[in-house]
Structures are given as structure tokens and as C-alpha cells.
Amino acid sequence: MRGLLAAAGNTARTQQRRAASRARWAAKKGEEGVRDAVHATRRVGERVRDGVVNRLKGAWRMVRRPVRAASRRAAQLHEQLEFNRVEWRVERELEQLVGRGRLLVAGPWLSEVGFETLYWVPFLHWVKAAFRLEPDRMVAVSRGGVAGWYAGVASRYIDMWEDMSPEEFGRRNALRGVTKQYELSALDHDILDRVALRIGTREFDVIHPGFMYRLFSLYWSGQRAMGFLDEHTRFACMEAPVIIDPSLLPRDYIAVKLYAARSLPDTPEIRRRLRELVASLAERQPVVLLDTGLVLEDDHADYTFAPGGRVVSAKPWMTARNNLGVQTQIVAGATEFVGTCGSIAWLAPRLRVNTSALYVDPKWLHAHLPVAMRAYHKLAGAGHFAAADLRALPRPSVRGEVAVR
Fold first, then answer.
1. How far is Cα of residue 30 from the mean position of the Cα atoms in its chain?
2. Which of 368, 386, 383 is nearest to 118 (CA)?
3. DSSP for 360-404?
4. How many CA atoms lie within 13 A of 96 on its CB side?
5. DSSP class of residue 119?
């Protein structure tokens, strides 16, 4: 009997465990179902939300694109309006100056030779043509004996170095802290006071280089095309006045002006190539070197080659006060001109001399080279103008060498 009771108890406990297990399994499944249902509901909600958000984003993009395009266009138009205002303001100020009917002083020019020859003088020719000015009404102020550069624009030229030593000029010009002349400086005012004493009156207005710099900055910064320069410049051929005795020069010669610049930096390899070039030119014709030994207007220093034989240095014929005028005369009498791309190379074609302008780094010339090439291609009677990378020229085969210091 006890055995039967024990067996019955075991069976009952087994059934209880099974029932409890089934109950736990059922409860577990119920909880998982609830969780699955919650997750499914959440996923549906997320899909609905994402769908609504995506539709709203698409609608916003459709609205935003034309709004942003209109905003960019408005900004561009505002920017162009500001550029136009610069142009209009410069032209209006010039018109007001001319309309006053007084004597006009063009300058003083304190900046680089290259900008004077390529931009400032052609700009003054445009001013003369645009406002129908007579040369008798204009006085040009510069330095280095360049009266011939302003022929046809101004009937009178004043060289600031007649009243100020080149050394004082160089020191005070460096104190300005900038190369370009966007506004009148203390040095400008001082020079203009001295000009007033020279011409005997202060009743004059000033066409300052700042007009040109403000206007042409629109081209240099890429905001205006080259046609803008065409509209505000007039290039003309010129005659060089005689400053030194022409008998000092060979009958036929090549004028050479090579100086260190960012476009033609001073390195051993470039010096070697230039030495070979000058020696090669000297085999064709005598070479007259336009080395002055002066650094007054900018940071350019001449490459100095040892003269001798068919290589002649013009340095003994030049002073600080006449150096640019003498260089102009020598270039005008040459059969051709070879030099660093810039400075006198921008001038030589207007002296009716074929010109080869050299560089090795053209990035400093991108804005200026097209101006010169276009101007001298169009100018009747001008010398041919060609620019070349020094490294691309064939290595000359010469019998000797010219020393470069």
C-alpha cells in the first residue's frame, strides 16, 4: 500500500512539473508575442514617419532649389553691381576733374616700371581720347628721364628726381609699405607740392595712378574680361629722345635687359642658361647690356654680365636720373630686344623693335602677357612680341662664355 501511495505521489508531482513547464512555456510565448507585436507596431510607425519625412524633404528640395538659385543669382547681381559701381565711380570722378577746366597733373608715378609701361601710359592715352584732352593741359610726373613715354599725352614732363634724390625717393617709397598706388600717400603730396613750385601754381587737379589701379583691379581679379582693358587703354608707338651720343653704340646691336624676378628667379641653372644665351647672341651681333646696378622702384636686380669683346655694358652711360630714358634710347636703336618678361619688354614693341620676353614661371604673368600680346598684335607698326620659357629654348652651341656675376 505504501508503494502504491509513493508511486501515485511521484506521478502527481511529475504531472505538476509538466503542467508548470507548459504554463511557463505558454507565458514565455505570450510575452514574446507581445514584444513582437510592439516591435511590429513600432516598425510600422517608423516606416510611416520616414515616408512622411522623405516626402516632406522632397517637397522642400523642390522649393529650396529655385530659392537657392535665386539667392545665388541675387548675390551675383549684387556683386556685379558693386563692380560696376567701381567703374562708374572712377569714370565719374575723372569726368568731374576734366570738367573743372583746370590744369591736370598725371601722377606722380611711384610704382613698378612694368605697370607704368603696360598700363599707366596706355591708360592716360585713353583718358586723353575719352575726354578729348589737349596735351597742353596735361603735366606728367615720373622719374628716370622718361619724358618720351608721355609724348602725345602731356606737353610737359617733370622728373621728380630733379627735386628729390633717388636715394631719398627709394627710402621714402619703401616706407609706403605697398607697391601699388591705390591712394595718395604722404610722398605723393610732397612731390605734388614740389610740382606746384615747378609749374608756378597750385591751381591744378591730379589724375592719380589710383584711378587706374582701382579700375584695372577689376581685370586683374578676374571680374572683367580683356575687352575691359581694350576699352580703357590706347597703345601707341613712340619715338625715343636722344640722351646719350649715338656714336657710343655699335652700328647694329641686340639690346639685352635681364633681371631677376619671380618669373625669372636667380638660380645657378638660370644664370648658366642666361650666360649661354648672351654668348650666343654675341656671336650674331654685338650685345648692349642694359644693366644699371640700380634698384630704386621695385625688388628687381639686374643680372650683371662681364663686358668684353662683343658684349658692351651701358652702365657707364647711365645715372639714376636718366637711366630709363637711356635704356629707351638704346632699345629704340637696336635690331632686337631680349629681356626678362616685364618692365622694358612691355615697352620695346612700341619702339618698333622685335621683342623676346623670357620667363620660367608664368603664373606671375597670366594677367599681363595676354594684354601685351593682344595690344602689340593689333598695334600698327609695333615690333613683334614673343614670350618664351627660357628652359624651352634650345641650348646654344657657342665657342665661348660670358661671365655672369
1. 80
2. 368
3. S-GGGTTTTHHHHHHHHHHSTTPPPEEEEEGGGSPPP--SS---B
4. 7
5. I
State the average pLDDT over residues 144-165.
95
Q: Where are the alpha helices (DSSP H) in 234-322?
A: 268-284
Residue type, 66: P
Q: Mean pLDDT across the stretch 167-182?
A: 88
Alpha helices in 111-185 (DSSP H): 113-115, 121-130, 166-175
Residue with cell 560696376: 84
Q: Is the pLDDT score of 12 beyond 80?
A: no
Q: How far is CA 294 from CA 157, 257, 291, 357, in A?
A: 22, 13, 8, 21
DSSP 222: T
CB-based contact 94:127 (threshold 8 Å): yes
| Alpha carbon distance 90, 215 (integer Å) | 7
Q: Residue type at 338? A: V
Q: In angstroms, rounded to a whole number, what is the distance separating the alpha carbons of residues 330 and 243?
A: 10
> Which range (45-59, 100-114, 222-236, 248-262) has the least confidence?
45-59
Identify the pLDDT of residue 404: 45
**Integer CA distances (angstroms), 96 to 104, 120, 153, 231, in order:** 12, 20, 19, 20
Of 321, 262, 254, 332, the closest CA to residue 294 belongs to 321
Minimum mean pLDDT range among 13-22, 138-147, 362-371, 390-399: 13-22
Rounded percentage of the chain residues whose pLDDT exceeds 90? 64
Residue 342: DSSP 8-state:
S
The string of pLDDT tens digits covering residues 211-224 is 999 999 999 999 99
Residue 330 has which C-alpha cell? 638704346
- Does the pTM exceed 0.85? no
With a cut of 90, say whether residue 177 has pLDDT above it: no
For residue 233, give the DSSP letter: -
Considering the domain 246-392, what is its CATH architecture? 3-Layer(aba) Sandwich (3.40)
Cis peptide before 108 (omega within 30 of 0): yes
Report the mean per-residue pLDDT for the chain: 87
Calpha distance 33→320 (Å, rounded): 101
CB 387 within 8 A of CB 373: yes
- Grid coordinates in use for 295? 634698384
Judge whether 234 and 125 are in contact, CB under 8 Å: yes
DSSP states along 289-313: E-------SSS-EE--BPPBTTEEE
Which residue carries 630704386 as its cell? 296
